[in-house]
Amino acid sequence: MVELVGRNWIVTELLRAGLEVARPERDRGIDLIVYSDLDQQVGDFIACPIQLKAHSDRSFSVHKKYEKFRRLLLVYVWDLDRPSDTRAYALTYAESVGVAEAMEWTKTDSWKTGGRTGKPGYTTNRPSQELIRMLEPYLMTPEAWRTKINTIAGMSLGVAAF
């Protein structure tokens, strides 16, 4: 249920930002594709895959399995149980790993070997104030969505480096 609510919430936000959204038929690590069919700034069709992490409260995770997807956005939707507080953070895989490194999670057994699960990565269901401060630059607004998508699209068009 939380995933459905989160997906609908994020689709609404992307549409408000003037972007389009498609849903892959199969889940192979990409939940949504956000695109602009002829972006005025870039002058081309641009698209970006999204892996959605929807939560009724707050959670942040980064897992090595997402490293293989170029231009993937990891989108964390928080506080779905409190609509007036619901918000989204969108980070590239590299940005998420940067947060994990700053939090020193990449030094843990969970990150290195997968610990008990055998799936390398790190998850916290109780984000610290330090983590929340680190995520502030990635808080999405309609303007921030368009900028983020254009930046990531620029990677594939040779317009911007990441």
What coarse outline follows from CA principal-axis ratios?
Answer: globular
Q: Which structural class best describes the helix and strand composition? A: alpha+beta
Rg computed from alpha carbons, rounded to a whole number of angstroms = 16 Å
Q: Largest sheet, described in full? A: 5 strands, mixed
Q: Which regions have little confidence, pLDDT < 50, spanning 5+ residues?
A: 157-162
Gap between N and C termini, in Å? Answer: 35 Å
User: Which sequence of SSEs, written as H and E, runs from N to C?
Assistant: HEEEEEEHHEHH
Proportion of residues in extended strands = 15-25%
Strands in their spatial order, largest beta sheet: 1-2-3-5-6
**What is the share of helical residues?**
25-40%
Quaternary form: single chain
Question: What is the strand tally?
Answer: 7
Helical stretch tally: 5
